[in-house]
């Protein structure tokens, strides 16, 4: 139980180091009889794949998902669905230079203290590549949720200080920044390119909107819907904060400003709450924002220490996204889907 | 499994409606042989208790904790420690006016959709009173952690737009706002009083600092240390956001600004990360901020609907904190303690 | 997580030492809207209570269950239901003689090695009194199951070598042995009385039959229905074995003898399997037998060692059932109910 | 959460249908720094593999384990260890004849009722082939346990009515029945051959002995050591009963006969308890017996029904072990190892 499982009834367990033989996931709890569209899984994987644009790393990973169990003739069996993604080029590079030092902004030192041993190749288990498995699992959850009319959409709300000002979700996949504002998307891309040219990186903010969620999902105390979403999102490397609805702005509002009045037909007049009250969905759109830090892997020289605790410098070479916002977007959607699929099933036991 | 348990090895399960017979908690996983100081539990409960100042509700709850099991002669037995807190005045008021309507900003409508039945008295299970049980459990976790030199301190960083500018933790318990800045604390209190006079409420920001945490706590994927803390904190009613280290500001920084260099002796030169990298503690101070919304219970008239979905208005009477920041502070510390106690034990199995 | 929780969706967590302030349980996962009949809980507790007959200990425990949460106006709220049972006479005896020695047949030595500390009064957490909490929880599960037509009945199949030859479930509560065969019940009682007169004890076999279970309950791999029942039953102190259907006799049969043919209308011609195949219920009656060891507390002098590992003798005084079969019967039913309630809910998520 | 995970801290999750692409397992919780000997895993897999003797099916499965993650240079990383076993001949046969009928003694009907869909090829998820994954995981647990001196040995105690009379563990792997009594092993083999010749099958009893277990393992209430072992063993298809120590014989003993006296140096004079008292290990050898039913797949004609509930007959062709006792033995050891590895780690948190 080193924390590689997520969910209660719709439960996933992942494995895999960045440069090991493969990554993968077991999804245990997908109900039987749900159509599984392999092409949709592949499409989701393609969204996460690097090398799609100049904003992302050039590594040409195939990221082919192989379904090993739990699906027969395109329909789920109710048994665990295992999926693996082979790592094609795991022996392609010499990582020995990183064995002895701790990269700033990375988990290296913590891993060293925790396990006394680590796979330094590409970050090992702490690599962003680990999220492959989450996207594959999330694609299954999405298929289950879509059959109920629940839809999830994440996007770049801000990159390098440039904010999206308009929100047309149809244009998200049409620009490399995945901004819902095409014009802002161009400026975001320019900021990323500029940082890359300086051997640096930039951070940003990811927004996520979930529509079609019925009222009543979530559990009242520890397993609040927002608590589980926060758990899921802060479980993504690089995410440093989350806020639901008006979020941190709520700290500056009065109750009479912040409360969302209701009107005839169980409608909410406003949605400052972001679709969740007391940890339970209200039937309104759920929305939240995530703070994403700038990629820690930069090619500028940085001060750090080696295993002996002595001062040294490190200059990280190789392929690294100068901004992870565009690529984390499908992962955010995947994790959101896992949380909701779990609560949809748990709700079947509530009364 | 309606989500009333928290933790893996140091595991707590709570129960209780606001106006039922009692609230309580079972702590399963406290190691044997730890001294249990009942006076410390009582002191923690007193910190959460209402009626301490004009910032908090006037209800004079005794909040006496009774330990029912798991402790003998002041030492933990290794068996589950159950604690209950009786609700003294559960029949004191007529709540029938609230049975048929949904209060804005509260979980009422979600509960109704979820269960088809709810205890309307004082909010039932969704009442802030539920956190009593968490504080009692957290006191046990704190005792366990203190024996290892881990210390947790939360405080009011902002209330009603007034920010703390200085951070003297010794003054926190000396002002009703629990601000680490005495002067700001007075201004905060004034803002709360002003809101109350208007039948309104205010929100704020709670900060939390954990010192003495060894490097290596947390699990690398879903159970990252920050993920579990976010899970714990968003599981508190009224918390709408969380950020670790520089948090949302990281979205505007470059990698070269945000990365924390290391120097000889495994020291970090800066701590933008807030003591956690890749989900694992770095040995630096852990710090995070929470967005706390203004109390939804206000005495102004609000628009809402009844069970039939018809428009109506509600005017909430009775005792309600016009700002929950001061009283949520010991609860934030308690939940932080529960997360850390769990990871301290899990780390015993890591290698 | 010292193992005091049981179940996945219908989950119970118990606490309490034999001579502490109280025992109790939190039932988390009872669906909302189920009628809760307190009188039925009391009746189940009364069945487990000692002092009912000469077969059981003379201790006159009140065993009053107090419901602290989760039930309003006789209906479950969907929130955790906490119940406690006070220990009336916890200070009545001097247990200091047992502090320094390990009683044969008891958990004393194991506890000592495990925790380095233990509550010696009446066995502490390892006392059979702990099962009070299970019976209270099981009563809730029974109420939930009965609304679906599932009924559970346990009985004394054998005591002190005397076997029940006829199986009239209506007479079980009419004889002190809880035998379904009145005549055998008298002989069983005589065997128990004889052992008691000799300062000794006897063991026996408990049978359990569950009717009304629909086909399809249980999960195919680790959480087979029989696996969970075995887990539940071997979790009872004094149970040393379990067999389903023809059980150990199956080891001597051929496949053609042991297989249960099916006939028109999905009927099974025989039920050697005991209602479970491949871990999943078949729709036939579930039945199993339990080996119950003779009570280890006997008043004869026994050889043992003290904490220093030196030879000594112990003569156990006080109230002890010379045979626990009659009193374990309601506990067996309770645990069976907990397992089935969990699987009934989990099945809602299977397709 | 359809029940494909086992364990708390040393946790395994399996997947795979008999004739799907692959079976496999994720072991999450293996401590970092443990040497992983791939040759030992292969040797354990070979012990379970069919086609070793005339007692077992002729299928020549390669059963090659591929380690996908969690191990680097022969040492565990602390991250999840995933292993897969490809199914070589999954398209080799026409199973359409079984699609419409329910085989007696199998899980077919239950699966149909549970999921409404099933993979009929070779039993799908309910196939004994599923235990491949358990043996691979168990091999890891065994390596971890052996470093602590804990050793597990299972054997054929009885097959087709022939009992082992002598217990030389060195001869177990020298006879096809895996009997610790070479002479009895020959008779067992003859019984199996005779049944096979008649198109029938036989059952038997598996014994298991664990040595080197320290006192203090197991948790006192629901997670008793024997409860978890029973859970593990009844989770194996074909196991219909379990007994610890003298087991069902204890039902006929008096307390003075059954209790195990202790003597100087914390030795137990006898071990009727089978090494577990009150759910906690005593430091003595743990031993238990399992009732294994005769293989339900027999080539004689059997009465059954089709999906429409109409009477029909089935004659099962193809490869099937006429007795599963020899092949279940390494699986029993594997599951025992998983239980013990979990408790060894949990014990690190007990005090």
Describe this structure in words.
4 copies of one chain form a homotetramer. With 351 residues, the first copy, chain A, is α+β, with helices and mostly antiparallel strands. In chain A, the strands form 6 sheets. In chain A, strands 1-2-3-7-4 form a 5-stranded antiparallel sheet, covered by helices on one side. In chain A, strands 9-8-10-16-11 form a 5-stranded antiparallel sheet. A two-stranded antiparallel ribbon of chain A has the order 5-6. Helix content of chain A is 26%, strand content 22%. Chain A has helices spanning 38-48, 96-99, 108-115, 131-146, 182-197, 225-234, 255-258, 325-347, and strands at 5-6, 11-15, 22-28, 65-67, 71-72, 75-76, 81-86, 151-159, 162-163, 204-211, 239-244, 262-263, 267-268, 276-277, 280-281, 286-292, 301-305, 311-315. The first copy, chain A, is globular and about 65 Å long. In chain A, strand 8 (151-159) and strand 9 (162-163) form a beta hairpin. Chain A contains 8 helices and 18 strands. The two termini of chain A are 31 Å apart. In chain A, helix 6 (225-234) runs antiparallel to helix 8 (325-347). At the A-D interface, strand 2, strand 3 and strand 7 of A face strand 2, strand 3 and strand 7 of D. Strand 11 of chain C pairs antiparallel with strand 11 (239-244) of chain D, so a sheet runs across the interface.
């Amino acid at each position: 139980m080193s924390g590689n499982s997520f969910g209660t009834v719709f439960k996933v367990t992942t494995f895999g180091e960045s440069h090991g033989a493969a990554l993968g996931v077991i999804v245990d709890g997908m109900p039987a009889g749900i159509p599984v569209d392999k092409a949709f899984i592949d499409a989701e994987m393609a969204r996460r794949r690097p090398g799609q644009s100049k904003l992302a790393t050039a590594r040409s990973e195939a990221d082919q998902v192989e379904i090993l169990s739990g699906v027969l003739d395109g329909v789920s069996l109710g048994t665990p669905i295992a999926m693996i993604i082979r790592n094609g080029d795991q022996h392609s590079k010499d990582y020995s230079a990183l064995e002895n030092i701790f990269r700033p902004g990375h988990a290296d030192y913590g891993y060293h203290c925790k396990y006394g041993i680590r796979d330094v190749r590409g970050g090992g288990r702490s690599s962003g590549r680990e999220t492959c498995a989450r996207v594959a699992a999330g694609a299954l959850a999405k298929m289950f949720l879509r059959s109920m009319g629940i839809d999830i959409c994440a996007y770049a709300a801000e990159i390098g200080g440039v904010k999206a000002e308009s929100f047309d979700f149809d244009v998200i996949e049409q620009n490399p920044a995945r901004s819902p504002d095409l014009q802002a998307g161009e400026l975001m891309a320019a900021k990323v390119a500029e940082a890359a040219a300086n051997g640096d990186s930039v951070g940003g903010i990811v927004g996520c909107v979930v529509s079609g969620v019925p009222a009543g999902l979530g559990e009242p105390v520890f397993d609040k819907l927002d608590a589980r979403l926060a758990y899921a999102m802060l479980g993504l490397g690089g995410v440093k904060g989350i806020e639901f609805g008006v979020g941190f702005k709520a700290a500056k509002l009065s109750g009479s400003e912040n409360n969302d009045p209701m009107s005839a037909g169980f409608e909410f007049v406003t949605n400052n709450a972001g679709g969740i009250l007391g940890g339970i969905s209200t039937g309104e759109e759920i929305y939240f924002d995530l703070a994403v830090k700038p990629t820690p892997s930069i090619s500028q020289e940085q001060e750090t220490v080696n295993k002996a605790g002595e001062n040294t410098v490190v200059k990280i070479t190789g392929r690294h996204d100068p901004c992870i916002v565009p690529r984390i977007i499908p992962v955010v959607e995947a994790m959101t889907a896992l949380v909701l699929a779990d609560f949809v099933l748990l709700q079947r036991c509530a009364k």
